[in-house]
Amino acid sequence: RHATRVDLDATDAAAVADFAEEQNVDLAVVGPEQPLVDGVSDHLRSAGVGVVGPSAEAARLEGSKAFAKSFMSEHGIPTASHRTFTVEDGDEEAYEAARRFLTEQGAPVVVKASGLAGGKGAFVCSTEEEAQDALRQVARERRFGDAGDRVVIEECMDGVEASVFALTDGERYALMAPAQDHKRIGEGGTGPNTGGMGAYAPTPVLTERQLRRVEREVVAPTLEGMAERGAPYQGVLYCGLMLTDEGPKVVEYNCRLGDPEAQVVLPLLSGDLVEVFDKLASGRLGQMPMHTFGGAAACVVLASEGYPTDYETGVPIEGVEEAEAEADVTVFHAGTARTPDGRLVTDGGRVLGVTAQGPGLEAALDTAYRAADKIQFEGKTYRR
User: Fold this and answer.
1) How far apart are alpha carbons 351 and 346 in whole angstroms?
2) Which architecture characterizes domain 296-372 according to CATH?
3) I want to staple 113 with a disulfide (CB 3.0 to 4.6 A). Which of 88, 121, 145, 354 is the partner?
């Protein structure tokens, strides 16, 4: 195998930096959002470790939707119209103001907890009743704790979603293949939102002309704006977009590679990925010519029954090696673990990501599903 799982609390930034220093780690690629917001990149850099991941200040783009909205307004970056309400400490006046605003706005509307909520803090509401219930969950019932201290209420945009990624060393940047993911648990985009049930790249919904517009109107001003704040952005910038009739608009920023988008974007990137990340971390990205391979990649996520709410763990998994024996297939582990006797078992909601490459999207999807069918565990769930 290519890696060893270490029993280390990723949210303890100081402990992560100490471990990296003790193990003489040269390069750290930060995946989860909470450590980024908590400053793990800052701690690692202080320890002399190269990092692919923004500083805590730059990570506010993801850590605070209220900040991100204010930032976009300040820099003229297209996004949905919105209003932010501070409802911390049981502020009844602010809560009632938010309730009145929802009534005035009508539906459909989107209600979001400003802070990190594990990808589950945004509610797309088709009726005012749903919107008021979402507001109550976030602001009064404190479903997401302090993440709900501020609530962002925004217009519900019409269009098709797509994702654009930029690798940046703080000065230069390079775009990767645009991707599209599917977040709903059910077929046809039904059911509750998840962290992502599948993805493919490049997405056919984003033309080359639109991509250049996204670069000009979103990526460049975002990076320039963070540099002006004294927080140059170094790492992966994920721009979640809605392709509306008025043009691309930002739904959200992520300060990391998306999951499962990373599983389809990275395989299409030419060159040695470690070398790319090393040059990014050391401010030498411009010395690394990059392009994407032809063809396409598709990822099918295998989830535990009951996800994204309640699900069992410790369920034995079979067939991973058989799936990986398929040509152009890679199986990425997410919610898995090994028992003391070495058996592979489930250890999370999203268990495995089965990624396949092909000359086109249809071929990649066919191969991914064929490989996914070879993997078995009780309660296996995935989108068709």
Assistant:
1) 6
2) Alpha-Beta Complex (3.90)
3) 121
Type of residue found at 297: A
Closest to 256 measured CA to CA, from 118, 117, 62: 62
Distance CA 211, CA 218 (A): 10
Q: Render pLDDT for 226-263 as a digit per residue (tens, 0 to 9).
A: 999 999 999 999 999 999 999 999 999 999 998 899 99
Reported pTM:
0.90
Query: Which residue blocks in the chain are alpha helix, DSSP H?
Result: 13-22, 33-37, 40-46, 60-63, 65-74, 92-105, 128-135, 208-214, 220-228, 262-265, 273-281, 320-324, 361-372
Question: Cα dist. 278→52, 225, 242 in Å?
Answer: 8, 24, 32
* Residue 205 CB contacts under 8 Å (≥ 6 apart), including other chains: 160, 162, 180, 243
**Can you give the residue ranges of every domain in the chain?**
81-155, 158-287, 296-372
pLDDT beyond 80 at 123? yes
Q: Which two tokens stand for residue 11?
A: 């949210």
Q: How many CB atoms lie within 10 A of CB 321?
A: 11
Cβ-contact 285, 50 below 8 angstroms: no
Q: Are strands 150-155 and 160-169 parallel, antiparallel or unpaired?
A: unpaired
CA distance 300 to 182: 10
In words, the CATH class of domain 158-287 is alpha beta
Query: Of 1.10.3210.10, 3.40.50.970, 3.40.50.300, 3.30.1490.20, which CATH number belongs to 81-155?
Result: 3.30.1490.20
